[in-house]
Recover the amino acids of this structure.
C-alpha cells in the first residue's frame, strides 16, 4: 500500500510536487522508492539551471538500475537537497519529507493543471 | 511472459518475489531488498534458486580423457567425490563456458554449466565427442531438464544444513553428515524417499552448499531449508544479491568477464589452465599468450570518492584515452562504494593504477585493486 499524500500533485513518471507561492518542492513518490528499493546514489541538477516540464533533470540509482527523474514543471532550480546526496537511503525512508530532491521557481503556473491529482495518481499505481 | 519457470516458481510467487527475465527464465531478482539479502548471506545465510543452471553427465572408460582434452583444468586431480572449477575453450583459446566438473565415481562425471550456455555447451561437447576416437567408451547426456538445484550460502549454513539433509552419504564419497564435506567435495544423500547431490561450493565467497535433485526433492529441500534456517537468519535471496555478492569477490560471469573472444589468461584465470597435463583444446594459443603476453587484462577496481555506481559497458579511460569497458559493476553493499571489473591494456593492469570510469558522459576517478575486492576480516 503506497502512501499518496492528498496535499501534493503527481506526474505519470512518479514525481510529486508541493507548491508554495511561485516555488515548488519536488521528490519521488513512495511507490517509486518502493519499486527502486535500496537507493545508493542521487545526482541532482545544478542550482540556477532551467528546465522545461518533462525534462530529465536528476538521476536516482538503486543497486540494480539508474532511473531518470523528470521535472514536473518548467522553471529554475533554486535549491537542492544535500542530505540525500550524503544519505541516499533517505529517499527510501522519507520520500515526501527528508527525501525531497530540489526546489524550483515556477515559470508557468498553468502547467500545474496538467499534473495528476492524488486520486488519479493513486488509480494509476493501483491499476 | 513466455519464459521458462523453475520448479520453485510457485514458492517465489508466494514469497512476493520481484520477478524478471533472466536469459529466458522468469527468476526472482529480489524478495525484500538486494542489500538486505546480500547482508543475510555475508552475516548469516541465504538460499538461492539455481534450477535454471545446466547439468551434463559424461561417463565411460573414455570420459576422463575426453574431458581432460575439452577442459582446461587438470581432471586427473579429481578423486571420486571431488570437483573443480574449470573452463571449456575453443581452438582459439576463447571461453565457451566456465563451469564446475565433479567426479561422481571412477567413470562418471557431472558438469554444472551456465544456464545461458546450455545449448552452446552441449552442441560443442557433442561435436567433440563425434571426433573422439574411443566413441564406444563415452556417453554424454544433457540432463538439465531433469534436475533442479538450490544454493545455500553463508557462515551459519553449516549450523542447520544437517537438520535438512540428514544422515550419511550414499554415493561418491563417504561422509557421516553434509557438514563433513570439505570445500569442493560432492556426495549423494538420501532425502525423503529420493536422493540429492550436495557439494560444498558456491558463487558468493561464503561457505555454503549447492544441492541438486529431482524437482520434487528440491521443492522439499527449499521448504526444509527455509524452516530450519529461519532461526539462524536464513533469507531467500534473488539474482540481484547473487550479482553483488559475486562481484565483491570478483567471480566472473559468462557474458560479462568471459565470452568466446576472451581467453582465461586475459581474464586472470591462468590458475585453472593446466599447461603441464598434455594436449587440450586451446592449449597452443593460451601457451602463446602466457609466454608473449595479452592485449587486454581483466582488472578489479574501486571508485574513488562519492560517485554513481559503475555498470557494465561504461567506458574505462586510462591516461586520457578510452581504453576498455566495465564488464561488471555495482554499488558494493559490504564496502559502501562503487566497485567493478573490466578490461584494460595490460600495462594499466597493476593495482594502484588510477583509471577513470565514464558515467553518463562524465569521467569519475577509480583505482585498480587486487582481487578479490571484498575480503573477510
Amino acid at each position: 500500500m503506497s502512501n499518496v499524500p492528498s496535499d501534493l500533485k503527481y506526474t505519470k513518471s512518479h514525481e510529486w510536487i508541493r507548491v508554495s507561492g511561485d516555488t515548488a518542492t519536488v521528490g519521488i513518490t513512495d511507490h517509486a522508492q518502493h519499486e527502486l528499493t535500496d537507493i545508493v546514489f542521487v545526482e541532482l541538477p545544478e542550482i540556477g539551471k532551467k528546465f522545461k516540464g518533462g525534462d530529465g533533470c536528476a538521476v536516482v540509482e538503486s543497486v540494480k538500475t539508474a532511473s531518470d527523474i523528470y521535472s514536473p514543471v518548467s522553471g529554475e532550480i533554486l535549491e537542492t537537497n544535500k542530505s540525500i546526496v550524503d544519505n541516499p537511503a533517505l529517499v527510501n525512508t522519507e520520500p515526501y519529507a527528508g527525501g525531497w530532491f530540489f526546489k524550483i521557481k515556477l515559470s508557468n503556473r498553468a502547467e500545474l493543471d496538467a499534473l495528476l491529482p492524488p486520486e488519479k495518481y493513486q488509480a494509476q499505481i493501483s491499476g | 511472459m513466455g519464459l521458462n519457470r523453475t520448479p520453485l516458481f510457485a514458492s517465489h510467487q508466494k514469497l512476493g518475489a520481484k520477478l524478471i527475465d533472466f536469459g529466458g527464465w522468469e527468476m526472482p531478482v529480489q524478495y525484500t531488498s538486494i542489500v538486505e539479502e546480500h547482508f543475510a548471506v555475508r552475516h548469516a545465510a541465504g538460499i538461492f534458486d539455481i534450477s535454471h543452471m545446466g547439468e551434463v553427465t559424461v561417463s565411460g572408460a573414455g570420459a576422463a580423457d575426453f574431458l581432460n582434452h575439452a577442459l582446461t583444468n587438470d581432471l586427473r586431480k579429481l578423486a571420486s567425490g571431488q570437483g573443480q572449477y574449470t573452463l571449456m575453450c575453443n581452438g582459439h583459446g576463447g571461453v565457451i563456458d566456465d563451469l564446475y566438473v565433479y567426479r561422481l565415481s571412477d567413470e562418471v562425471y557431472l558438469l554444472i554449466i551456465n544456464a545461458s550456455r546450455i545449448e552452446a555447451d552441449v552442441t560443442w561437447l557433442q561435436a567433440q565427442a563425434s571426433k573422439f576416437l574411443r566413441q564406444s567408451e563415452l556417453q554424454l547426456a544433457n540432463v538439465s531438464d531433469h534436475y533442479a538445484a538450490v544454493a545455500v550460502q553463508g557462515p551459519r549454513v553449516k549450523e542447520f544444513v544437517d537438520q535438512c539433509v540428514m544422515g550419511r552419504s550414499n554415493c561418491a564419497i563417504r561422509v557421516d553428515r553434509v557438514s563433513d564435506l570439505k570445500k569442493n567435495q560432492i556426495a549423494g544423500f538420501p532425502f525423503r524417499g529420493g536422493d540429492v547431490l550436495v557439494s560444498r561450493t558456491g558463487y558468493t565467497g561464503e561457505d555454503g552448499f549447492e544441492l541438486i535433485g529431482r524437482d520434487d526433492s528440491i521443492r522439499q529441500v527449499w521448504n526444509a531449508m527455509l524452516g530450519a534456517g529461519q532461526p539462524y537468519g536464513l533469507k531467500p535471496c534473488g539474482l540481484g544479491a547473487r550479482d553483488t555478492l559475486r562481484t565483491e569477490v570478483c567471480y566472473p560471469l559468462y557474458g560479462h568477464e568471459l565470452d568466446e573472444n576472451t581467453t582465461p589468461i586475459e581474464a586472470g584465470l591462468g590458475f585453472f589452465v593446466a599447461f603441464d597435463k598434455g594436449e587440450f583444446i586451446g592449449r597452443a594459443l593460451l601457451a602463446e599468450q602466457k609466454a608473449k603476453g595479452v592485449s587486454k587484462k581483466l582488472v578489479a577496481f574501486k571508485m574513488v570518492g562519492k560517485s554513481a555506481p559503475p555498470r557494465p559497458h561504461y567506458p574505462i579511460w586510462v591516461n586520457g584515452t578510452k581504453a576498455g569497458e566495465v564488464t561488471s559493476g555495482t554499488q558494493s553493499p559490504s564496502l559502501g562504494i562503487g566497485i567493478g571489473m573490466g578490461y584494460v591494456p595490460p600495462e594499466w593492469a597493476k593495482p594502484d593504477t588510477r583509471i577513470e570510469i565514464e558515467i553518463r558522459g562524465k569521467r569519475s576517478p577509480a583505482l585498480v585493486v587486487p582481487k578479490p575486492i571484498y575480503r573477510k576480516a
Summary: The mean pLDDT of chain A is 95. Chain A has one domain: 9-114. The interface with chain B takes residues 37-38, 40-41, 43, 59, 61-64, 66, 85 of chain A (CB under 8 Å).
